[in-house]
Write a structure and sequence with these properties.
Elements lengths: L3 H4 L3 E7 L6 E6 L4 H8 L1 H7 L6 E4 L3 E4 L11 E5 L10 H15 L5 E4 L15 E5 L12 H12 L2
Antiparallel strand pairs: 1-2, 3-4, 4-5, 5-7, 6-7
């Protein structure tokens, strides 16, 4: 179920004065400020702004590449993130193209890799700021993709039944 916030229908009741219960509630419509509020809560925006720690691998004019906070799915896993907050690869094609060019530059330095981004919850997107995964691959690394918790649970179940 999508929340009101996700649908852009977010209003806040604001206590402004006396009423039946001692308060009068007025609607404060935050829809015009939704993007700004989302950016304030965005972990990647905080990293880009220098307000949150990250291991920066490379910087471009409008894009950074960082190591995932928990180390990633293998050695060398990198996230490419545009400075501008866009929700996903389809939100702003120009920003997506700039980020993809940076990702391609990193990918060109590897003998084999996956270059992955997701658009929407159904496609396993969990952080709603465009980011591109560069995942180096090695022969026999046995890394299943996508690396979802459901897939990990399924693999664990298979291993315990063998």
């Amino acid at each position: 179920m999508r929340r009101a916030w996700d649908r852009g229908e977010f209003n806040i009741g604001l206590a402004t004065g006396p009423g039946p219960s001692g308060l009068v509630v007025a609607d404060l419509d935050l829809r015009p400020h939704r993007e700004e509020l989302s950016m304030r809560a965005c972990a990647f925006c905080s990293i880009v702004a220098g307000d949150a720690p990250a291991t920066v691998v490379r910087r471009w004019k409008s894009v950074i590449a960082i190591r995932p906070r928990r180390g990633g799915v293998n050695d060398g896993h990198v996230l490419v993130i545009p400075h501008q907050h866009v929700t996903d690869v389809g939100t702003d094609p120009a920003v997506a193209a700039t980020a993809m060019a940076a990702a391609a530059e990193l990918a060109s330095e590897l003998p084999a890799c996956n270059v992955i981004t997701s658009k929407g919850r159904t496609a396993s997107q969990t952080v709603f700021h465009l980011h591109i995964h560069i995942v180096p691959r090695r022969e026999g690394d046995n890394l299943p993709l996508p690396w979802t918790p459901q897939q990990e649970a399924e693999q664990t179940t298979k291993e315990t039944h063998v």
